[in-house]
Specification:
By secondary structure, the chain is mainly beta. The chain has one helix and nine strands. It has a single domain, classed as Jelly Rolls. The strands form two sheets. It has a six-stranded antiparallel β-sheet with strand order 1-2-3-9-4-7, with no helix packed on it. The longest helix is centred in the first third of the chain and has 16 residues. The N terminus is likely disordered.
Length: 168
């Protein structure tokens, strides 16, 4: 019972980090689900109309934005992908379970600092600095930080419109 409560709390926390996406084509609206153990089949449809992004060279001091308790992120956009630098700074809780969620976006994540327990589909593994995990569209996945500080670089395609600032 305790594991279920912890899992539910972690899923809620992750929903803060990865809020639902609004979007989809008028003909077949997409549903983005961020909790659950199973996902629908891979989504190979073309993304919503592209939002053009001007070329940019950004400084290292780009501001961090809050992303939930003990978390902050920097989000960078192209018209076809999103790159997110996520830093988690909080104590490790011994009883944490791997949270699961899924979304239509393909995701590649590189661990820059710290150690994680990662679940992708039916596999769970611990990885540290230099480790990477790849998540196809709609495949359940989740992480648990195993060190006090974890920094990861996520890349998503198509772009994460839910992460784009409201003032476009």
């Amino acid at each position: 019972m305790r594991r279920l409560k912890v899992l539910a709390l972690l899923c809620l926390a992750l929903m803060v980090v990865l809020p639902g996406v609004r979007g989809g084509s008028a003909e077949a609206p997409r549903t983005y689900v961020f909790t659950g153990e199973t996902g629908p089949p891979r989504d190979y449809r073309a993304p919503d109309p592209l939002v053009p992004v001007d070329p940019a060279i950004l400084p290292a001091d780009a501001p961090w934005a809050p992303a939930g308790e003990g978390m902050k992120r920097k989000v960078f956009f192209n018209d076809r992908l999103t790159m997110v630098l996520l830093r988690i700074d909080r104590p490790v809780k011994a009883a944490e379970a791997v949270t699961c969620h899924y979304h239509v976006h393909d995701q590649a994540t590189y661990v820059m600092e710290g150690k994680l327990r990662v679940k992708v589909g039916g596999s769970t593994r611990e990885i540290g600095r230099g480790g990477c995990y790849i998540v196809p569209s709609n495949v359940p996945h989740g992480i648990v930080p195993l060190t006090r500080r974890v920094t990861i670089l996520d890349v998503f395609t198509p772009t994460r419109e839910d992460f784009r600032p409201a003032s476009r």
